[in-house]
Amino acid sequence: MDLNTKKIKKNAFRVTKVRGITASRIRIPGGHMDADLLGKIQEIAQKYGNGTVHITTRQGFEVPGIKFEDMDKVNELLQPIIEKLDINQEIPGKGYTAAGTRNVAACVGNNVCPYANYNTSDFAMRIEKAIFPNDLHFKVALTGCPNDCIKARTHDFGIIGMTEPQYDINRCVSCGACVKACKKKSVGALEFINYKVVRNEEKCIGCGECVISCPTSAWTRSKEKYYKLVLMGRSGKKNPRLAEDFLIWADEQSITKIILNTYKFVEEYIDKDAPGGKEHIGYIIDRVGFEEYKKWALEGIEFPEKTIIKERIYWSGIHFC
């Protein structure tokens, strides 16, 4: 068959090492879905694939062993999955169009995990709605707390949940559980002064360990949701590195706007001759300069008074060139 491989990739099918055989990539925004969809993925794998399914690192499914001539039939079976997950499409019935931007990944969040400070899957879906469909190479990950189970610091954008602990001295019995937990499991931002627990606001990272450890609920999470946004983590062959803090105590709206502004920045500065028409955002920032990126990223955004914006980011890590 005479096929356009760029078109295949854009439609979220993989070009495999076996001639005439492809694999369908099925993305699950936020990594959460109804269990009944597993049966539909099984149907695709058994009817058109080789009967196996690979669970990807980006919280999706990859169905290998699909013949090129069966791609349209697979897309028909994918449509109920896409509709159930409420995923944006360029053309309904044509599968996962515009697959350059990767699936928005998330840890399990506060629906399940006691450490998580927010509903990661819900926020991931709102980001999905804002950025898809898109062909540009972006990776976004959300984690509920600084434990970072999703490895947010290896992505272009990592969103780490924070909380501003609220202290009720009338419920405190001076047991010291919160101070011990903060010292042993976090950054040591709490101390006893005159039988009262005092929080060092500059040192506190908003992890919520004090809330979890307190037996009397003297510590509670803040009603306001806060996030840390880390930028330009990446793996790969060329200069892998961990993402660095950009925003601290940020709000959801500001983070979403920064991601959207970054799409505009990439459209302006991407290397048009980049392999596959894709270039990592970090490479573009390295070439253009962080100050220019920051100007684009912060355009038109009004931040909450509490938000800390890093003036300059200096990346470290393995450096090959």
From TrEMBL:
Family, per entry: Belongs to the nitrite and sulfite reductase 4Fe-4S domain family.
EC number annotated for this UniProt entry: 1.8.1.-
Molecular function in Gene Ontology: 4 iron, 4 sulfur cluster binding; heme binding; metal ion binding; sulfite reductase (ferredoxin) activity; sulfite reductase activity
4Fe-4S ferredoxin-type domain sequence ranges: 163-192, 195-224
Keywords: 4Fe-4S, Heme, Iron, Iron-sulfur, Metal-binding, Oxidoreductase
Organism taxonomic ancestry: Bacteria, Bacillati, Bacillota, Clostridia, Eubacteriales
Listed name of the protein: Anaerobic sulfite reductase subunit C
Enzyme class of the recorded protein, top EC level: oxidoreductase
Cellular component, GO, one term: sulfite reductase complex (NADPH)
Gene3D superfamilies per the UniProt record, alphabetical: 3.30.70.20, 3.90.480.20, Sulfite Reductase Hemoprotein, domain 1
Alphabetical list of Pfam families matching this protein: Fer4, NIR_SIR, NIR_SIR_ferr
UniProt-listed PROSITE patterns: 4FE4S_FER_1, 4FE4S_FER_2, NIR_SIR
GO biological process: sulfate assimilation
